[in-house]
Amino acid sequence: MRVAMVQDDWWPRTGGGPVHVKELAISLAETYDCTVDIYTRALKHDGKRHTDIEQYASGDVTVSRVGPCTEYWNPIGRVLSLGTPIPQLVRGDYDVIHGHTFLPAVPTRLSGILSGVPTVFTVHGTALTSGVGRDQSALAGFKREIEKHFVLGFDYDSVISVNHEHVDLLKTGHDDVRAIPNGVDLERFNVDADRTQDVLFLGRLAPKKRVTDLIDAFAKIEKEFPKSTLRIVGTGPKREELEGQVNDLGISSRVSFEGRVPDAAIPEYYASAGVFVLPSVWEGHPLTLLEAWAASTPVIASSVEGIEEFIEHGETGYLVSPESPRELANALRTTLENLGEAHEWGKNARKLVEAEYSWAGVADRTYNLYQELV
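Below the sequence we write its predicted structure tokens.
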């Protein structure tokens, strides 16, 4: 089977979308002999141009970066990306065209119309649901209407949600909606490392992640746990503000901003952490949660959309109210004072991902969906 996938961002941009698309494509190729072509944007970052073709799974997975090559947020690059993949998608003689995230909705739908090929669209998260932490900018209403049209108004042959919470919403616009979660590479996280009392955040330093709340919470308990360091791994638009917050709180010696780290180093970060914290105000289905679980790392996370449906409080993690540094501080205190119990959450979570969240399982369900459409 020949499959085309369309993904808006790619490395050096970090996030769950590129990981999901890459790992799903590799698993489809290795398990079902699919040929998968991934189309994404050529990107310019820190003065370097990222335009090279990448190949995986012995060449059965190819990543092509389509120009023009611009910074990710460049408006010309973003607008042109709505159309530039279409010629390759139409001419590629594909069995399925599978779009991911937000802007790829347009080339996915138009290519399906022009080629007659079945289309699948995966929603990794959406601002169309109500909840805390949504966009409050002057253009929020306009952006919401565009997303509503892309997500609910386009006629895909099937729609996938990475969580169950969005299924009912998506059924208001589509007849065929499936919940297929993210997966995780279990073998990659089989790492031996000595557990510390460190508190880990790993992810994009963006507003919805609420790392500000984690810093405030850590400042409330850091004197009680002199062996603990808050390690913040990742890049993003909030970094400068977060560094200023740490300085203002006088905890610079206890907080480490480690930037973007090599992929090969990530498993050891999880494996050595005392606890991983995900204080977001909303998610789709965060890969970092699955990665922490795969490393048997205890997790504290916000009880919000895209998280709470996956964690059983006190069994596979610890849930706290969003935007509550005081409650988060109490959760950190409870966890660090009872690391033996917390490690049981991690062990339970590892068993859960082994049973339900392998990429092979995600590929199996996705391939069966493809088979129904072709």
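The first helix runs from residue 16 to 32.
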